[in-house]
Amino acid sequence: MAVPKKRTSKAKTRIRKSIWRDKAKETAIRAFSPAKSILTNRSKSFYYSVNDELSNSSESISVGRDDI
């Protein structure tokens, strides 16, 4: 089995990790953007049906400060 001859420097390791994190961050932003537009009702490219049961259940579940 092949074994590296020299140790990888901390700088190279950090550079590789930062590239990996940046890719993950960019993917997360791309996934979050359409979800945010759907929740704020600004979506013009997504077509979806609203289930009346789900929209009414969220109102009955919410608990105000006075109810506690």
How is this fold's topology laid out?
Blueprint: H1 10-39, H2 52-61
Give structural attributes:
single chain; 68 residues; mainly alpha; 59% helix
General description of the model:
This protein has two helices and no strands. Helix content is 59%, strand content 0%.
Task: Give me a quick take on this structure.
With 68 residues, the chain is an all-alpha fold. It is 59% helix and 0% strand.
Order of helices and strands: HH
Q: Give the C-alpha Rg.
A: 23 Å
Mean pLDDT metric: 77
Classify the secondary structure makeup into a structural class.
mainly alpha
Count of helices?
2
In angstroms, what separates the terminal alpha carbons? Answer: 65 Å
Proportion of strand residues: under 5%
**Topology, number of strands:** 0
Largest sheet: none
Low-confidence stretches: 57-64
Question: Helical proportion?
Answer: 55-70%
CA-based shape: rod-shaped
